Amino acid sequence: MSEHEYNFSASARGMRASEIRRIMKLAGDPSLISFAGGAPALSLLPADIVDAIYGALPEQVKRIAMQYGATDGYPPLIAEIKKYLASKNISMDGQELIVTTGAQQAINVLAKIFTDPGDAVITESPSFIGALAAFKSYGAETVGVPMDDEGIIIPQLLEALDKWGKKAKILYLTPYFHNPAGIIYSVNRKRQLLDALAGREIILLEDDPYGELYFDDADKPLTVPMKSMPHPGVTICYAGSFAKIFSPGMRLGWLCAPAGIIDKCQLAKQSIDACSPVFTQALASEFLSQNKMPAYIETLRAAYKRRAGIMLDSLKQHMPAGVNWTVPKGGFYVWVTLPEYMNASEVFEAAYKNGAAFVIGSAFDPAGVKNDCLRLAFSSTPEDKIAQGIEIVANAIKSCIK
Ligand SMILES: Cc1ncc(COP(=O)(O)O)c(C=O)c1O
User: Fold this and answer.
1) What's the CA-to-centroid distance between 131 and ligand 1, angstroms?
2) Residue 380 belongs to domain with CATH number
3) 44 C-alpha to center of ligand 1: Å?
4) Does the CB atom of residue 38 touch ligand 1 within 6 A?
5) How far does residue 2's CA lie from ligand 1's centre (Å)?
6) pTM above 0.85, yes or no
7) CB-side exposure of 254: number of CA atoms within 13 Å?
8) Is the CB of 174 under 6 A from ligand 1?
9) Are residues 60 and 144 in the same domain?
10) What total number of domains does the chain contain?
C-alpha cells in the first residue's frame, strides 16, 4: 500500500524518505570503504570488559537487571553518573538527572516538552542529523546559525534570537568535537554565548557525547562544559551519552537539567518506553563504579587520534586545491568544504562507484539544502583502508571540478 492509503498524522506525513536515506542505505554496503557511519569501530568495543562485568554480577542483580525499572533510571547508575558529573564540576544544586535511551532520547524528550508546531529550535549550521529530525518531528522549525572554527557566530545567533523571540524554545549545540563539523568551541566563545543568553527564556541544550575523546591532554581544558561554568540567567540542559565511551548498543544516555524540567521529562519518557533498559544500565553502572572507564577511554583516544592522523595526512596528499577541511582535536569527524558550485551528491555517486562512501552535507543543513560540503567519519574505518578511501573520495571530487 502507498502512503496515501493511510490516514497518517501531520507529523508522520512530514517525515519523508529522502535522498539522504537512500545514500545512507548505499553507504551501509559492507564492501565499501565507508566514512559514513558515526559509530565506534567494532574492534574497539569493550566486549571483554562487559563479559567480566556480567559474569561477576550477583544472581539477584542479574534478575533485577532483567526487570522493569524506574523511569528516571537505575538508582546505582544515577548515583554513578552524578559522581561523574561532579568530577566535571557540574553541580547538582537545583538540578536532577534522568537516564535516557541514548542521548537521542534526551533530545527527543526535550523537543517534546518544549516545542509546539511553528516554534523554532535554533541550531548550529551544520547540525546533528538525529537532533534535526527530532525537532522537526514535533513541527518545530530548525533555524541554522553558521559557525566559525571557535563555535556558533554570536552576532548571527543574536539576530535569530531576536527574530524568533518567545517562539525560539531551544538552542541546540554540540560544542565539543562537533558532529559533523569536527570543531571544538573556544573558551572565549562559550563565555560570549553565556553572556548573550543571560536573561533570555530560551533553553540551551548542551549535547556532549564526544567531550571525553580529545586526542591530546593539552586540549582537555577545552572540553569544560558550559553547564559547569557560571551561567546566571541561563537554563542549561546538559545531555551525555554512553554511546561513544562504552558502546552505542547499550542505548544509554542522560540529561542533567533543572528539577522542574526533569520532572516533565519523566512524564514524557513514561509514555515512550517506561524506562531505559535496566540490563544495560546495570552494566554501565558497574563500568563506572569499578573505574573501568578511564583506561578504556585512553585506548579510544589513542586509536581515534591515529585514525584522524592518517585521514588528515591523506587529505593533504590527495585533495585538489579549493577543497578545505577542519582539523579535529578529538571526536569522530572531519568536515570537508567543496568549491561552492560543487554538489556533494554528485561527488558521492562518483566515490560510490569506486568503492568509498561518506555523508553528504545537506543531511546536516537545518534547511536541508546546502550541499557543497561532506562529512568524513574516521572512527570506524579500518586504519589500513583510510588512505585508500580518501584517495577515492579525492578522485571523485576531482572528477566534479568544472
Ligand atoms: C551530537 C550527537 N548527539 C547525540 C547522539 C546520539 O547518541 P546516542 O547514541 O546516545 O543516542 C549522537 C550520535 O551520533 C551525536 O553525534
Assistant:
1) 8
2) 3.90.1150.10
3) 18
4) yes
5) 32
6) yes
7) 24
8) yes
9) yes
10) 2
Phi-psi region of 94 (alpha: psi -120 to 50; beta: other; left: phi over 0): left
Residue nearest ligand 1's atom 13 by CA: 38
Question: What 3-state class would DSSP assign to 172?
Answer: strand
333 is in which domain, residue-wise? 3-46+295-399
For every one of its 402 residues, what pLDDT tens digit does the chain have, with 9 covering 90 and above?
A: 565 689 998 888 877 666 677 777 777 788 999 999 899 999 999 999 999 999 999 999 999 999 999 999 999 999 999 999 999 999 999 999 999 999 999 999 999 999 999 999 999 999 999 999 999 999 999 999 999 999 999 999 999 999 999 999 999 999 999 999 999 999 999 999 999 999 999 999 999 999 999 999 999 999 999 999 999 999 999 999 999 999 999 999 999 999 999 999 999 999 999 999 999 999 999 999 999 999 999 999 999 999 999 999 999 999 999 999 999 999 999 999 999 999 999 999 999 999 999 999 999 999 999 999 999 999 999 999 999 999 999 999 999 998
Same structural domain for residues 280 and 332?
no
Q: Is 280 in the pocket of ligand 1 (CB under 6 A)?
A: no
Q: Are residues 20 and 130 in the same domain?
A: no
* 290 C-alpha to ligand 1 centroid (Å): 25
Q: Are residues 107 and 243 in the same domain?
A: yes
Asked if residue 380 and residue 351 are part of one domain, the reply reads yes
Instruction: Please return the burial class of 164, using the count of CB atoms within 10 Å of its CB with bins 0-12, 13-18 and 19+.
Output: middle
User: Of 289, 309, 324, which marks where a domain is finished?
Assistant: 289
Find cell 562529512 and name the residue.
375
CB 123 near ligand 1, within 6 Å: no
Q: Is 103 in the pocket of ligand 1 (CB under 6 A)?
A: yes
First to last CA, the chain: 43
**Any atom of ligand 1 within 6 Å of the Cβ of 101:** no
In this structure, the answer to whether residues 228 and 214 fall within a common structural domain is yes
Q: How many CB atoms lie within 10 A of CB 107?
A: 27
Atom of ligand 1 nearest to the CA of 252: 10
List the 253-258 sheet strands across, edge first: 95-100, 253-258, 235-241, 203-207, 168-173, 120-125, 141-148, 151-152
CATH number for position 195: 3.40.640.10
What is the rounded distance in angstroms from the CA atom of residue 160 to the CA atom of residue 283?
Answer: 43
